[in-house]
Write a structure and sequence with these properties.
CATH superfamily: Class I glutamine amidotransferase (GATase) domain
Order of helices and strands: HEEEHEHEHEHEHHEHEEEEEH
Strand content: 15-25%
Distance between the termini: 27 Å
Pfam family, one: Peptidase_C26
Keywords: Hydrolase
Largest sheet: 9 strands, mixed
Protein name: Gamma-glutamyl-gamma-aminobutyrate hydrolase family protein
Number of strands: 13
Radius of gyration: 17 Å
GO molecular function, one term: gamma-glutamyl-gamma-aminobutyrate hydrolase activity
CATH topology: Rossmann fold
Number of domains: 1
Strand order of the largest sheet: 4-1-5-6-13-12-11-8-9
GO cellular component, one term: cytosol
Number of helices: 9
Structural class: alpha/beta
Amino acid sequence: MDAQRLRHRPVIGVIACGRAVEGEPAQAVKHRYLEAVETHADAIPLIVPSNQDVTHAADIVARLDAVMLTGSNSNIAPHHYGSALDGQAPIDDGRDDFSQALIHAAIRAAKPVFGICRGLQEINVALGGTLRDLREAGQGHVHHAPPDVSLEDMFGFAHEIDVAPTGLLHRVVEADRLRVNSVHFQAIDRLGEGLVVNASGPGGIVEAVAASHTPAPVFAVQWHPEWRPEGRAHDLAFWNYLSEAARARYMPAPGSELSA
């Protein structure tokens, strides 16, 4: 069995976003997510379109080893977490709906779920949590570069975060404090049921979460570990852990929230 697992390259479903391409609706995933799955998790990325009926989610998950929810420039529509606010554009209704179905299907099927940036927010909403827009509280500049900067400068914008000493993230990165990029405006407000904060950043913003009640790991970070992770041990550790979990070798760390 161990030899078979070592030969097995897991298939990671990577959710797509709705985009306009040449004037038509299309589905898209930025290459850096796919390349990180292939190169740093030694897995096979499979794009999962979000413009489909939510009833397909269980059948899709059954064919995957894990689910990856990427970041995106779109914001989650507030009505998904019970708010009457309109929210700030861009909004991706198809992804909003399908990501929720995909998360629930994966948890029911005991398949690992990983989130990056928007993916963390989607997991929180799927588990009954809420979000807030940092721009509305005058905190947007703390967690996102100024508008109209280059891509390099946008992902070069960074801050320190504190890692919870007993959480899963600490087990993965083996560090108490990290410096991470910050490219987001939405953030967790009320924590979803069963989620445990694994790291916090400026202003107490939640920077990483893990589940405490799921049969397979649910783990997400607010920053972007797919952005040029070479040379950053904590970002490479994220992909190593995804690889470990997708290969079904996952074991909760003694004393962590997932071993409770």
